[in-house]
TrEMBL record:
<dbReference type="GO" id="GO:0010945">
    <property type="term" value="F:coenzyme A diphosphatase activity"/>
</dbReference>
<keyword id="KW-0256">Endoplasmic reticulum</keyword>
<keyword id="KW-0812">Transmembrane</keyword>
<feature type="transmembrane region" description="Helical">
    <location>
        <begin position="173"/>
        <end position="194"/>
    </location>
</feature>
<dbReference type="GO" id="GO:0008654">
    <property type="term" value="P:phospholipid biosynthetic process"/>
</dbReference>
<dbReference type="InterPro" id="IPR019388">
    <property type="entry name" value="FIT"/>
</dbReference>
<dbReference type="GO" id="GO:0019915">
    <property type="term" value="P:lipid storage"/>
</dbReference>
<keyword id="KW-0472">Membrane</keyword>
<keyword id="KW-0443">Lipid metabolism</keyword>
<dbReference type="GO" id="GO:0005789">
    <property type="term" value="C:endoplasmic reticulum membrane"/>
</dbReference>
<feature type="transmembrane region" description="Helical">
    <location>
        <begin position="57"/>
        <end position="76"/>
    </location>
</feature>
<dbReference type="GO" id="GO:0034389">
    <property type="term" value="P:lipid droplet organization"/>
</dbReference>
<dbReference type="InterPro" id="IPR046401">
    <property type="entry name" value="FITM1/2"/>
</dbReference>
<keyword id="KW-0378">Hydrolase</keyword>
<dbReference type="Pfam" id="PF10261">
    <property type="entry name" value="FIT"/>
</dbReference>
<feature type="transmembrane region" description="Helical">
    <location>
        <begin position="253"/>
        <end position="277"/>
    </location>
</feature>
<protein>
    <submittedName>
        <fullName>EOG090X07YX</fullName>
    </submittedName>
</protein>
Length: 370
């Protein structure tokens, strides 16, 4: 009798349970509240930066053209942004290229260090995109100044010299010329560069899953599904795991700063459109900025004519660097049908689809009450 009771109270050892789970994929680690809040902020910043650049370019061109015409025709009241000495103009717009290069440069260096496995040659090639952009910015801004000084005239005749514009302004006179809007050019160009370089974060969170699955595949006797990291050596995989954990918090902060800058550049662009320069001066400057962006990212870098890759191209492919936003839009479209659009938060709908509600409403109340 005692033996039968002890047999009924028998419990399998813990080792048998763990042995049953052997070979299964590991689960992700729990996320802290701080990480959830940070990811929510990053998600909001994605809404700002992950707009299709082709659509954003059209918006810029139309805003500059029609907004400038309305600003010239309609009596727009003065505001704080109409003053040239406002704090945003002095400390941000006039230093906009420096601000952009600081945060975008940090973002490009940190992300490329991870997906290039620390290869200094590949990292330098990614940084060359910003060096090329800096050269273009310097060349065109100097050209704008040269055009203004060479093809202008003073309101009153003075002695011609190489510094005629400075002499004219020093005497309290006005210099009349075709002054291309440098602010319009640099604000649009900076915003487009930020949007292009931010694409490296499209599938960044998936690298963590790839690392976990790749570790499982290499430690397990059974071969699991292939990951983008299976082409890496053991040293490269160790480097990616280490740098991904160390750099990801700083990458997210840089991404947030880039989103704030892009939003600020758009606001200051609206102020420039309304209050400063003439319509032709702003429109020509905006077209030059758009053409320069197209020439760089849609022609030179996409075809590797200078050996410079696009953002996200490295030792392993964790996303499609050529069309990352199209993949993101396709994923969103698969979650929501074409005929039904529901409000959502971070990709999750607030309410169930109408079709599901309709199906439940067709049941009798007695069945629903149970």
């Amino acid at each position: 009798m005692v033996k039968s009771i002890s047999a009924l109270n028998f419990r399998p050892p813990v080792e048998s349970k763990t042995s049953e789970r052997k070979g299964t994929k590991p689960l992700p680690e729990p996320t802290s509240i701080q990480q959830v809040l940070l990811l929510m902020v990053v998600h909001l910043c994605r809404k700002i930066l992950f707009i299709d650049p082709n659509i954003k370019v059209g918006i810029y061109i139309m805003l500059v053209f029609f907004g400038s015409i309305l600003g010239d025709v309609l009596p727009v009241p003065n505001s704080y942004f109409s003053r040239k000495d406002n704090i945003f103009n002095i400390y941000f717009v006039k230093l906009s290229w420096g601000w952009t290069m600081i945060f975008v440069g940090s973002f490009v260096y940190l992300t490329s260090s991870v997906y290039s496995c620390g290869d200094k040659t590949k990292i330098r090639k990614h940084m060359l995109r910003l060096l090329f952009a800096t050269f273009m910015w310097f060349f065109w801004t100097k050209l704008f100044v040269t055009i203004e000084e060479s093809y202008g005239y003073c309101s009153k005749p003075i002695v011609r010299s190489s510094n005629s514009r400075k002499q004219c302004l020093s005497k309290g006179l006005s210099w009349n010329s075709f002054s291309l809007s440098g602010h319009t050019f640099i604000l649009i160009y900076c915003a487009l560069i930020i949007m292009e370089e931010a694409k490296a974060l499209v599938s960044w969170e998936a690298i963590k899953d790839h690392l976990r699955n790749e570790d499982h595949n290499r430690s397990s006797e059974e071969s699991g599904s292939a990951t983008p990291l299976d082409c890496l050596s053991a040293e490269q995989l160790l480097f990616v795991r280490d740098k991904y954990e160390k750099f990801t918090p700083f990458i997210r902060l840089s991404f947030i700063a880039m989103a704030v800058l892009a939003l600020l550049w758009d606001i200051m662009l609206m102020a420039t459109i309304i209050y400063f320069h003439s319509t032709p001066e702003k429109f020509v400057a905006s077209v030059i900025a758009v053409l320069l962006w197209f020439f760089s990212y849609r022609f030179l870098f996409s075809r590797r004519l200078l050996g410079i890759p696009l953002p996200g191209e490295g030792s392993f492919r964790y996303m499609n660097p050529a069309q990352p936003l199209q993949m993101l839009y396709a994923r969103r479209a698969s979650l929501i049908t074409k005929t039904e659009k529901t409000s959502s938060f971070m990709g999750m709908p607030f309410s169930p689809p109408k079709l599901l509600v309709k199906e439940y409403s067709e049941y009798p109340r007695e069945i629903l009450k149970g």
